[in-house]
Amino acid sequence: MPYFHEVDRFKAPEWVKETVWYQIFPERFANGDKTNDPKNVLPWGSKTPGVTDFFGGDLQGVIDHLDHLVDLGINGIYFCPIFKAHSNHKYDTIDYFEIDPSFGTKETFKKLVTECHKRNIKVMLDAVFNHMGDNSPQWQDVKKNGQNSKYANWFHIKKFPVSYKEGDNFEDAKDITYDVFASTPHMPKLNTADPDVKKYLLSVAKYWIDEFDIDAWRLDVANEVDHEFWRDFRRVCDASKKDFYLLGEIWHSSQSWLNGDEFSAVMNYAYTDSIKEYFIKKELPLSKLISNINDQLMMYRKQTNQVQFNVLDSHDTARILTVANNDKDLEKQVLAFTYLQPGVPCIYYGDEYGIDGGEDPECRKCMIWDKSKQDLSLYAFFKNLVSLRRKNNDILSKGSINWNDTLVDKNLVIFKRSLNGREITGVFNNSNSVQKVDFEGTVKMDNLVSFAEEKVTISPKGFIIFSK
Q: 344 and 427: one domain?
């Protein structure tokens, strides 16, 4: 560049680099207020959830359990949608300006944000702007009035009257005469290039920042919304609150969205998928894991990598424990490796107590609050891992990453994170045999490391982390 303008610089919020996130699916975290339970609510945790089941989770339940998150060490909550919607997942928004009645009221949410901020916990909401629910007044007007509806241009409609044929289940359909998310007829796609749609959605973005002081938006199906909309969205958020975090849901390479004028980061599935493919699925050689990680880091600016959102599981994927075939030693190894990577980690609610589950809806089980059913040993591991991350945020966020590839053929993963003369080294044994490694001048870090000699014995699925 002949001249580097300040306005063109990529600016990552500093607070994000120090954050360990916790994702909450509100309907399944905790039922704190029985008076707002939806009809036909099921007893808490009474069954593996189905697509249309309700168990009564709400915002008061989150308030009631904030001390749990504080004890765990969490300082950021990512909420799946909380706005008025028909489904249990709330990705089919009816009204973006209202809290879903089964979750509570605006007063409850304001109290939740206040209580989070008292505990130095940031709050991120889910912005579902690619599509809207078919129970929304806008879509109902289209169904009633067809091409004469004042909302006809709000959606991508191919033929009037709008219609579809039932598919195999509630979320499926065929012969749909309008564009939708995936194949569900209940989520008609919004035309975000339409001036009225854009004005409406941008006012939503500003409202929840100005009125409730949220700290971040997670942007659902972000790669299916036009870039011009996201640029305007970024301007509105930046004008409303300094150091605001915008997280896009994009599952593939994302350079086009990460130039500083749209998102701060993306959900880093492309990065963590390689980790799971190497450690758990054994589908990658170690050399390819290193290559894939380096390729991902080289795609983006260093400032971007520092705030990328590293998720091993979520409401959209199978639980990490299930992916690891319920092998908790393997799960711990994968978690520890991920927490040492550039970017910020996120715990999917209940992972800390050993909740398992396959693809949606099984991954959305009720949180375990019965202490007799909680894996307290796994909880202690998560707590130690979060502590390690937060105590070393500076080096783990900003430090360089250097691989030792001399033992690649033995599937012994060794790498260092370095910053200003400090080093943190991780050693991970992904082979089927015990391995011994020589180290000099090692220092025990936290209580994730236990060895007394320079020659360290590492079992399969074992790992050590130390500083020097």
A: no
Rounded to whole angstroms, the Cα distance separating 433 from 82 reads 48
| The predicted structure's pLDDT at residue 451 | 46
Residue with tokens 């080289």: 298
Listed residue (43, 52, 42, 55) closest to 86, CA to CA? 52
* Residue 112 within any structural domain of the chain: yes
Residue 427 structural domain = 400-467
- Measured CA to CA, the distance from residue 218 to residue 266 in angstroms comes to 9
Per the annotation, the verdict on 115 as an active-site residue is: no
Strand-pairing partners, residue 173, are: 166
Q: Which two tokens stand for residue 103?
A: 């979750």
Tokens representing residue 102 in the block = 């089964």
Residue 84's CB: how many other CB atoms inside 10 A?
Answer: 20
Catalytic residue among 249, 313, 331, 356: 249
- 24 and 112 share one domain: yes
Catalytic-role residue among 92, 215, 220, 356: 220
Active-site residue flag, 220: yes
Domain boundary among 394, 414, 434: 394
- Domain boundary, last residue among 163, 191, 219: 191
d(CA 385, CA 450): 15
pLDDT digits (tens, 9 = 90+) for 13-54: 999 999 999 999 999 999 999 999 999 999 999 999 999 999
On whether residue 1 sits in a domain, the answer given is no
